[in-house]
Amino acid sequence: MSGSLEGRRVLVTGAAGRIGSVATRQLTELGALVTALTIVEDPSLKADRIIVGDTRSEQDVAAALEGVDLVVHLAALAHPTSGTPYDVYTTNVVSTFNVLAQAGALGIDRAVVASSINAYGVPFNPDNVLPAYFPLDENIPTDVADWYSLSKQNDENTARMAWRRWGIDVVSFRFPHVNSAEILTRQAEGMRADPVRGVREAWSYLDTRDAAYAIELGLTAPLSGAHKFFVAAGTTNAPYETESLLDAFAPDVPRLRRFPGRQVPIDLTAVRTVLGFEARYELDLPTHQLEI
Ligand SMILES: NC(=O)c1ccc[n+]([C@@H]2O[C@H](COP(=O)([O-])OP(=O)(O)OC[C@H]3O[C@@H](n4cnc5c(N)ncnc54)[C@H](O)[C@@H]3O)[C@@H](O)[C@H]2O)c1
Fold first, then answer.
1. CA distance 193 to 180
2. Cβ < 6 Å from ligand 1: which residues?
3. Assessment of whether the complete model's pTM goes beyond 0.85
């Protein structure tokens, strides 16, 4: 399946959230008829259909999926501290199972799911472990020691099961920190002062509008199967050369290639070649000399 979203009926879960609100707007601008599923009423949300409900509820998800062609599943507790460990884990895995299992059983062709860079576990690992190598890629070994990362790893398994069981194509995005240009710029200022804090996320970021663009491509690119993709801006959020950051903060981590300038040390080959994704909004940062 590929092509236009004009007239396609798309369910967006978590539609009032940071990524969901922008995705709902951008998909609507592309002609999609969006059903917005939200657990909180949000008067600013504009969609073809708005359903207030819970992605853990079989009834609410069944109602939201009525007449739908495509699914974008973003609803989640988006941080380990967004609830108790039990709440974060169960909300995320039950919601993803519920949405994909029902969508699959209904014969819906395609779903896009928000996984996370945290599916590889290292960024929230309290032992301060470093990645097995740079650039991060979809095969990087995982080292999970928190319930949020575990839930995202589990969501990727659920996606694969749903495809094997029902043949629903699923694109899971390992999003890095996603935010508005304004907040990303502020974060980059913090990264200038304290760059070590970005090492385990490979100093990656993504503008919310680019997250919505990736979602559009995930819904329309010609593919089949269950695929997970790292997706990020091509540059880092730190105003230093990537090689000097890695020399300073990950000197013993193997580097599988060199990273010119501020190139992000994540392998974006899969998302570029399969989906044709290239970020449209990048931080324009000066390059300073790293002194430690
Ligand atoms: N923003 C990021 O930096 C980032 C990075 C990696 C992954 N993600 C993932 O992307 C997705 C969207 O993230 P976001 O930044 O927009 O988060 P967000 O918290 O702004 O949005 C998530 C939305 O899901 C809703 N929600 C939570 N539990 C629900 C439930 N049981 N039923 C229905 N809705 C529920 C929340 O109310 C919220 O509106 C999440 O799955 C998150 O884990 C986000």
1. 20
2. 14, 16-20, 39-40, 54-56, 74-78, 91, 95, 114, 116, 175, 177-178
3. yes
